[in-house]
C-alpha cells in the first residue's frame, strides 16, 4: 500500500522473493514486515530499525529510510535507467520530482552538444 492508501503491485527480483518466502515461513495471513511487537511495521519502526543497523555497522553518517530511497533513485538514474521507469518505481506523480534526484544533470558528458 502506497501513500494515500493506493494499492499497487510491485515486481520483485527472484532472489528477493526467495528471501521473503523464507522470512514469511508458513504464515498465510497478516502483514509481511513485522515490528518488534509482532504487529505491522510502520514508518517509525522502520526508521528505528535502520538507525539501529547503522549504529551496529559503525557508520557515523546520518542514514534514514528516506536517505536509502534517495540513494536508490540516484543510483538508478546514474545507471541509465529511463526516467519514466525510475519515476514509477519511486511512485512520483510528476517526473520533475524524480529529476531532483539526478545529481549528474549538469554533467558535460551528458550535454546534447
How would you explain this protein's 3D organization?
The protein has helices at residues 14-24, 43-56, 65-78, 83-90, 95-99. By secondary structure, it is mainly alpha-helical.
The arrangement of helices and strands along the chain is HHHHH
Major pleated sheet: none
Broad shape: globular
- Could you estimate the helical fraction of the residues in percent? 40-55%
Question: Into which percentage range does the β-strand content fall?
Answer: under 5%
* Mean of residue pLDDT values: 86
- The total count of strands amounts to 0
Would you tell me the structural class of the helices and strands?
A: mainly alpha
Quote the distance from N terminus to C terminus.
Answer: 43 Å
- Tell me the radius of gyration: 17 Å
Q: How many helical elements?
A: 5
Low-confidence stretches: none
Overview features:
mainly alpha, globular, 113 residues, 5 helices
How would the blueprint of this fold be written?
Elements: H1 14-24, H2 43-56, H3 65-78, H4 83-90, H5 95-99
Helix pairs in contact: 3-4
Amino acid at each position: 500500500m502506497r501513500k494515500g492508501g493506493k494499492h499497487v503491485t510491485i515486481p520483485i527480483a527472484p532472489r528477493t522473493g526467495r528471501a521473503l518466502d523464507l522470512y514469511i515461513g508458513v504464515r498465510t495471513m497478516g502483514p509481511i514486515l513485522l515490528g518488534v511487537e509482532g504487529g505491522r511495521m510502520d514508518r517509525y519502526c522502520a526508521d528505528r530499525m535502520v538507525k539501529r543497523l547503522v549504529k551496529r555497522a559503525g557508520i557515523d553518517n546520518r542514514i534514514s529510510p528516506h536517505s536509502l530511497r534517495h540513494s536508490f533513485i540516484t543510483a538508478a538514474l546514474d545507471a541509465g535507467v529511463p526516467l519514466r521507469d525510475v519515476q514509477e518505481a519511486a511512485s512520483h506523480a510528476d517526473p520533475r520530482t524524480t529529476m531532483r534526484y539526478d545529481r549528474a544533470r549538469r554533467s558535460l558528458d551528458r550535454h546534447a552538444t
